[in-house]
Amino acid sequence: MLILKITFLILLADFLTGLIHFYVDQYAVMDSKYLTVSINGLLIHHNFPRKMVSQSYWDLTNGVYKIGGAIFFISLFSGFYWELLFFILVSAQANLIHKWAHQDQSETSIIVYYLQKFYIIQNKKQHLKHHNGHYDGNYCVMTNICNPLLQKLHFWESVVKILKYFGIQPVDRTPKFHQ
């Protein structure tokens, strides 16, 4: 049961960080009123995908740690839940795993190489499907499990259609160039 719960929490972290990635790619604008640094960084990433390779661990994870830490602290008033702490810690690694998907093999550790090779974390091949020039899918950057399932279900296209029905249009993300 514990293994099942841990697996579920990892996939939930992948899905929810993918949902945020989807929102930023489809609906966020540069210099937005909220979370400007995070949103600008994600949007710039499409024009300069390898820029994140030079970012530190803290640069990649601090936003999730700050928000997740606040949520966890507030949750302590109703008790300690290891599942929430685990979920926050795993979610915070999304951009680190994303960074590894952009690194060349010579830039990653042997451990990362094998984690990617055996599909334990997302590999470069799957992540490059997101950088197809449209940025219209493959938003989940942690595992190789969520994206194929969401693609089969046409999940992201359905969300866009539902939001369009309510008058919420995606931002035009015609890429200027690729690196």
UniProtKB/TrEMBL annotation:
Belongs to the fatty acid desaturase CarF family. It comes from Algoriphagus aquimarinus. It is a multi-pass membrane protein. Keywords: Membrane, Transmembrane, Transmembrane helix. The keyword Phosphoprotein does not apply. It holds the Pfam family Lipid_desat. Its main location: membrane. This is Lipid desaturase domain-containing protein. It is found in: Membrane.
